[in-house]
Amino acid sequence: MTFESLGLAPALLRALAETNYNTPTPIQADAIPLVLAGHDVLGGAQTGTGKTAAFGLPLLQRLAEGQPAAVKGPRKPRALILVPTRELAVQVNDSLRAYGKHLRLNITSIYGGAGMQPQIEQLRRGVDVLVACPGRLLDHLERGTAKLDAVEMLILDEADRMLDMGFLPSIKRVIARVPTNRQTLLFSATFESRIRQLALEFMRNPQQVQVAANNTIADTIVHRAHPVDGPRKRELLIDILAKRHTEQVLVFGKTKHGCNRLAEQLEDAGLAAVAIHGNKSQAARQRALNDFKSGKARVLVATDVAARGLDIVNLPLVINHDLPMVAEDYVHRIGRTGRNGAQGEALSLVSPDEAGLLRQIQRMLKADIAMETVPGFEPSRQMRSDNAPFNAPRGPRPQRGHRPHGKPSGQQPRHAHAGPKQHRGGGNGKPASGTRRDSRA
Q: How far apart are CA 93 and CA 122, in angstroms?
C-alpha cells in the first residue's frame, strides 16, 4: 500500500516524499479513500496512529480540487477543525502546512492563551483551513471576526477529550453556525455512547473505521509499576532518572502546582526539567516543549490536559508520578510512547492509597501490569493489585480496641481500597454538561 495508490494528488505526494513519509498507516489506508469519496467518517484511532494525515491529506486535496477560480474579498474558512487544546491546534496546523506546502491554501489556528488581535488579522487576510479550540472560536464568532457560512468540511479531532473537558455545549453552538450540506469527520480514541450520540446528531450515514479496539494499548509498550510510599515518590523518581541518564522522559503529575514543584525539585537534583500545564502562557508552554524536543531539557513534567496532543517523536519512557484519577486517561498518557511501531515503556509509581486506581486501570485494560519493588523503596503498607501482591513487609497487627496509627477511637484505619469510588459523571471532578472549560487548560 502506497499513498499514490490511495488516490492522492501529485502535490501532496511530493510533500510527503520530502518529509520521508512513505507508507500509510492503517487508519490512513482506511479513511483517506472514504474522505476523498465524500463520505462522512467516524474514525476510531489513538494518538500516534497517524490520524492527522488520515483526515488532513484528503481534506487538502478536496479543497484544492474545488477551489474557486476567483474570490471577492478575504476568503472564508472552507474547512474547520475543532480540537480540545492549543497544543493540538498548533500540531495540526503545522502538519497541514507541511502536507499542503505545494498547494495554494491558507491555514491558520486560533486558541486561547494567545492575543486576539493577531488572530483577527489572520482571519481578515483570508483563511481556507481553520484549526480552532471551541472556546476561542466562540469568542471570534461573537465578535464577528470569524465566519463559518462557507465551511464545506467539519472535523472534530479527539472528540472524546473535548466532551471530557465540557465542550459539548460549545461544540453544538459552533456546529449551528456551519452549513448543513457539509462533509463531517469525527475522530475519537473511543466510541462510547456519547460519541455515537454526537455522530447520530451531526453526521449523515457515517462510514466507521477503527484501527484498534476501545481502550487498547500498543503491544510495543512494556508496562511496569513500582510500589512506594507517596512521600518517597520524588526520591524514587530521581533514583530512576539517575540510573537512566541518557533517555528523555515524560512525567505525568496530578496538579499544576505539583508539576511546577516536581520540575523544580528535579532541577535541584541536577536533572534538566521543565513543566507544562494550563497556568502557563502559550509562549511559555511552547518554549518548554521546544526545550524538551531539542534535548535542552531531559524531563518534561505535565498535567493530563496540557499534554493532550503533544507530538514527541521516539519518546522511550513515560512515567506516571501520580496515577490518573480516570482509568481511560492512562491510555492517553502512555500513548506518547511506543508510537508507530517503536518500542516504549510505561512506568507507574504507585502508593498504597492508589492501589484502587491501579485496579481500575487493569480492569479496563483486561491485563495485569507487572509490579516490581525497588530495593530501599519498599512501601510501609502491603497492597494488592487484581492478581498479585506488592512485596511489602507487614507490621504487627494491632490488637482489637487499640488505636491504629494514632487514629481516634472508633475510626477505622484507611486501607488501600477505601475512599470514594471514581466516576466519570458530573459532580465527581468532571464539569457538568452545561459548563465550558476554557480552551487554555
A: 14
